[in-house]
Design goal:
Length: 98
């Protein structure tokens, strides 16, 4: 999706932010694996959740600006919502707050 939209100059900075926020999710989940305490582990998951929420924002913005790729963007929005829900649920489980 990023490659498809990046060709249009108006989207360049928005797509750049979208790529940064979405790749930050996985990076923070991986970083959590090497944390030295449960508190740090949870903190990295919280950062990943914030990145997922930021990604939702950028996707919504792209959807508003570009109506041509609405289905593609909607599919990505659905996926990031699922990812955010999984991360949020994991955080609650880790904090023993089901």
């Amino acid at each position: 999706m990023a490659d498809k939209l990046r060709d249009e100059k108006v989207f360049y900075s928005v797509i750049d932010q979208l790529i940064r926020s979405s790749t930050s999710i996985g990076a923070n989940v991986v970083e959590a694996k090497s944390s030295h305490s449960k508190r740090d582990y949870i903190k990295y998951f919280e950062i990943a959740l914030k990145s997922a929420n930021e990604t939702k924002y950028w996707l919504a913005l792209v959807k508003e600006i570009n109506q041509n790729n609405k289905i593609l963007i909607d599919n990505n929005l659905k996926e990031i919502i699922e990812i955010a829900n999984i991360i949020a649920s994991s955080i609650l489980t880790l904090k023993n707050k089901k």
